Records
---
Amino acid sequence: MNEQTISQLNENTQALIDFVISIDNEKALITPPSGKWSIIQICDHLMSVDFGIFSLMSLEGAQADQDRESKKAVINEVGINRDKKYTSPPPLEPKGKTDTLEKFKTKFPSLRSKMCAAIADKDISRVCDKFSHFVLGEFTFEEWIYFSIQHTNRHKLQMEEVLSELSHQG
């Protein structure tokens, strides 16, 4: 039923894992001079956010209003605009549960696989009415998955920034 969404999630997962594989394990632990999160902290944050989204998939949700506008465009804009910074809610800040790239390279695809299984037969057009995004409000389940993809893309850009900063430090 939701093959396209599952396909997009799988492609996004593979793209991130392919990128992370290229990162030196020791470099991933270094906090850059700017004070941004380290690569491993970003990975830990991605795990927390996606686990939260996976948890939402167990909810039934509500029928969307017929005139409801999709939030995909705004999700996309937030995802690609690195000039706008957001502060992660405290429960989603890095906690150190994912503390090596090896763990991330195993745990992230496993979590994403569980997300795919959860949405396979779900009516993802329904609105997740029990939990809202802290900035963008209520999403349909499909929009939550789209958010997961764009959020991952945003943080991949952040990882690239961190790696660039680390390579230029002297």
---
Amino acid sequence: MKTELQYQSGFGNTFESEALAAALPKNQNSPQKPPMGLYPEQLSGTAFTMARAENKRTWFYKIRPSVVHGRFSSVSVPLWKTNGVEPVTSPEQLRWDPLPEPSKPIDFIHGLFTLVRNGSPETRSGVAVHVYSATQSMTDSYAYDADGELLIVPEKGPLYIKTECGDLSVEPCEIVCIPRGMKFQVQLREPWARGYVCENFGEPFRLPALGLIGANGLADPRHFLIPQASFEDRAGKFELYVRYQGNLFKTVLDRSPLDVVAWHGNYTPYKYDLRLFQPVNTVRLDHPDPSIFTVLTSPSSVPGQANCDFAIFPPRWMVAQDTFRPPYFHRNVMSEWMGLIKGHYDAKEKGFVPGGSSLHNCMSPHGPDAETTEKAIRATNTPQFLDNTLAIMFESCYPYVVSEAAQKTPLLQKDYLDCWRELKVMFQPRA
């Protein structure tokens, strides 16, 4: 059975779940003698003194506290890069082909490839955008990210993600978010899985304010799901990977860290089916801004300016009259990274394929390719349904730095700029 996740809107909603009846203390968060000999442990996602409506924490009742572990050693993951100096990033528009299937067994953690990043874990701002390609489950290994939350967007192959709060299944066209510091394990359900990850160093993702849209539209809180408590009570030799200050460390455990028998709080993993998103679109003329497609937002210190907006471009009707329907040509103070989950993106006829990605950085001009533009100009006013499409975007107020590996990979398309070369001059001055 699944529990609906309700986002906080000043109400301080909390949830509770227990895998065994009577495992959850009823009147005290950290009693001296919890039920069943469990240890109380709090995971805090915000400072203790944050406003009640923004305070995030969950109490775990564990078989053994997390403090019991071995010494840490550094692990080399050269393609997961969120610190250090990178080569100069050009303002040029960039596009990458999808990651291929790995030729050897590799799990989710070791299969991460950083494309772009901004901010840093030290400043608690910005994001890093990765792609992953994995052929192996994390069987006796676990991980947590102390630098940020992980928003995982599968493109190929379903995942089964075990966490301290319980388990979540996620497939392409769905997303899952793992909070900062939450222990997890990623298992594959098919021989090969691929997708995208946003590692968010800033404020946690939340639903955007709807403003004049009103109470309904975009992502509905009732469609966000959190797991029921489940636990592993097994001894053995296990590895725990920790992402800390842009580096990866590993320690050894003699018991599974997913030993939470009961929990209560509001700091939980969650999943959402992108196919349930309710688009808001034009029904007469002109072209609304792409911000109307925002699913989740991570605010910055400037009101109305996002540390990161997670937006999607789903199947929808286009019905505007005498209006250029694809995304308009524009230059933006925000920086836009895009990926494709399925089908085609309505601004690019060729070259942008599922599993691929593109970057249009701060003030770099972009828009539909020449072929799409010509078709749009010749289009009639007949309503058009955009089917077989689902594109995603991580838009940030901070310019993206492109990792050295992403600048040198053969997946980087050398001819991306050619998609605009055939745009014709149609200027006809009138006498």
---
Amino acid sequence: MIGRRWEAAYRTDMSHDGGRLLSLAAGTVLDVGPADAVEVAAAAGWPAVGLWFDARSWTDATTRDVAARLAATGVRALDVEPVILGRGDDGGERLVDAAAALGVPYVLMASGGADHDRVATRLGELCVHADRHAPGVRIVLEFLPIFSVRTLDEAVAVVRRVDHPAAAVLVDTLHLARSGGSPASLGRFEPSLLPYLQVADAPIEAPADLDGLRHEALHGRVLPGQGALPLVDALRALPGVPVSVELRSAELMERFPDPVARAAAVLEATRSVVAAADRSGG
């Protein structure tokens, strides 16, 4: 089945961190380009990294540069993002092709303002493209309360409607909490539907409106374990899956203007939370 070969590789040979692959999400180091993000991840001790695909600047030369950095450092690339609908050309096929060229198993998609019919249609198109041109690549639909696909249940409904093995759902713990979900809801779905977890922490009190939610998602996240979201429960609900750590934070950027120091601080905090999940699950 599509994705299974690469997913199995990403669940083995993890050495520590509870048997999980830990990945530095692209959003944590948006102040560097994708090739440099690989170097930052390696210098900070991350075994994997996420790649930000800017359709205006990504070229074949970018793909070659990223591939060379991955090979030189031994860092794996977990995902490429973003395909965001409702904003004109989303560049989805180019992202899928780049993922295939780099051996990346996941392309991250979000609904933007597109209605659910359009999201399902586009997700299906990208799955068919992956099936034909990029075996091993899966398209993960991320739900956000500020977009049209707002909740876990809505994302699952869209993916099931598409009914293609290359389609999956990405859970971000911040968006799960802010959309009214909980880690307990993750156990209602087959594991193949939720192939990896994106971790973010925040205060327990949610912003009052959509503008506040948007600002928090883009600027207000905190280090794992320094907020109040149930990260340990989420990790226990999805045992063994890779973990991508998304930490967009104006405060963290100010504290750690050097991206390597920032990435190292995020990794240290993440490992503490993963270790706590291992202890509580033991």
---
Amino acid sequence: METTLSIPRELQVTRSTLENGLKVLIREIPNAPVAGCWTIYRVGSRNEKPGLTGISHWVEHMLFKGGGKLAKGDIGRLVSRVGGEYNGFTSKDFTAYYEILPADHIETGLLVESERMMNAAFDPREVESERSVVVSEREGNENDPEFQATEELFLTAFRYHPYRWSEGGTKPDLQRITRDDLFEHYRRYYAPSNAMLVVAGPFSPKKMLPKIEESFSPLSKTENPPAPIIVEPTQAGERRVELRIPSEADYIKVAYHTPGFGSEDVYGLMMLDAVLSGVRLFAFGPGQTSGRSARFYRALVEKKIATQASSEFFPTIDPSVFALDLTVWDGVSIDKAEKLLFDEIERIKDVAPSKHELDRAMAQIRSQYSYTFDGVARQGFVIGIFELVISFETMTKLVEKLSKITAEKVSEVARKYLTVENRTVCRTIGVRNDHGH
């Protein structure tokens, strides 16, 4: 087993790798009354193919059903009994599970996560009962016009890369996926070498590592699953799609292709996002800014063009998109709203952010960064996600890198990526009920 120490200023994380390939990150938080245990697997909708969309999310559901030393219902009982909380979720890049527990019950989290890693049951009756759950989730999403618009945007912006489909999968796939399909997906991706365990709490790595080894070392080493190798070709012109669906509002959603985390432009794009609509870099739960002082809010919401207008840019493993999202104010034409939205994009290309705008964005970034490391609950998650996408060190240097982004750099990345040729626009025209229009 190898261990390295990474010490960025106030943070200290010990990174180890067990012989079976499991990467372990331990964050010591002296005097914390609670501890967190996260397992993050490098599997999500990015690892799916047509015919099996939604399989990662369905496997996640199955992993709360017991197996090995845990009977059905044991996970909930064990965690609730000590006043803890637990959950899991699936994204395009990863699937994550966690338990937040009183610090002296961290072994409960280690038991749950080690059994989940290779001993899940996949009882055929439970598979069928969960099929109805994931199908009904999908049907609920299909009744949400915003979900439909976002799904259509990604299906149009990405022609080849698996980022194109949503994590919930398509209904025909969910109706045909078998128990064997699910189990094969589980065996392929739920291996120690494809996972990361993050433990945060009031214990030294020296004391915690032997407990982790005891729980996880018996799990056998397996081959790493192949990573997707599909590269999305460069977009060579604007793509447009228009939906007409039952909705009390009209929506405009836009996606511009952006580079992966290897590019330094990523930091300029993060600052562009902050200037346009506020900071959400570490917004996993409370603590995010409202964006009321940002450009979109002042130009579109305050002037009653939109009820909501935002941008979003977040790190992913493969190149993704810089997104815009606008809900049109009732009574305003969608054409007018779209024109004014793109006027703001042209303005940021021509008029660099003021010192005041950059200073305000940096103040929000610093406060969110501090807030993230104030309690146990989200530390492990943020540490783990950055480690999975690129590296934990990237997150520790994020504030410093963003503080070096100049106003001109913000306009430069806008000119480079937020072009007509590189954008996909999804307009959703709401077909109103009789009491509407």
